[in-house]
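Good morning C.,

I know you're traveling, so I'll keep this short. The sequence:
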Amino acid sequence: MQYLGHLGRNDPLYGYFCTDILPQIGNFGQEPDFRVFRFAGNREVYLYSDQVIGVKLVGKFFKMPDPDHARYAGQTEFNNLLFLRRIGLADPPCRVVRPYGFNPDVDHVLVTEYVQAESFGSVIESAIHRGKTDRFYRKLSALAAFMAYFHHRTVGDWPVDFDRVCAYFDGLIHTLQAGGFIGSDTASDFRYVKELWRNQAFMWEDRSVLVHGDPTPSNLLIGHGADVTAIDLERMRWADRAFDLGRLCGEIKHFFFRSTNDPMNAEPFIGHFLWEYARYFPDQQAAFRSITRRFPFYLGITFLRIARNDWVSSGYRKRLIQQAATILRAIA
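The tokens, ready to paste straight into the viewer:
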């Protein structure tokens, strides 16, 4: 984290903390003095750490060109967190971060508790570079339990709408083509393969669940034992449970691909995670078979999602797109 200085007492955010946030935590009777830190890799997420009363808060600012969009995004995440905590995700080992408030009048800031934990990305890096694979397996089991609990608590009575995911896929292809990262022939090939997946009955067979929507390693905090805390719930939506599983496993493969030049090095860990997830169904083997039939599509689109980022080098982007094509063509 980068230290930025102290939060001024004349800052509207300081007043919001004192009048709306701190009373939810306790009656302190002293004026806080917040030091401000910016989280690495998050330009608009800050830690506010007070040394007088010992409170730490996280402020996430929704700074967007359209203020109505910013208000909607911030209020949506605040409501999502409240809802999930109400239905059982408020306490360890499976929980989401506690929200204290959303204020559109103070730069559209969402204020949450600060959780002292390790990002899942750090756990992956330790497995790759420091050989801590046993711990990685244990934490994958904890994540599987978290994901299963999250999904099982929110199962709907209606089937998956795979057309919505196909529209998302089309958007990724459009972005890659508009950026000059793929040509028209490659784009057409991807759309053809997408239709092959669309025509598979099993892609529509499961019931919809609420998915996290963006379960990247930075959005999953790993605590002691089996404790997992999720953050960044603004993209929560109704979808196939395999959406979350494919996104998370695609990120794991990306870490291994980037560090070892071979995404297949992630396979033992991904297999373990999916088998552990299936353990929370009445028939583990049947659940595993069902999930792993649908899983490659969501894994492939995760590679395409990563490839569209500006920070990805041209050489690595090409390999990501090639890997996505290989994964998605497995249906042919």
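Safe travels,
E.
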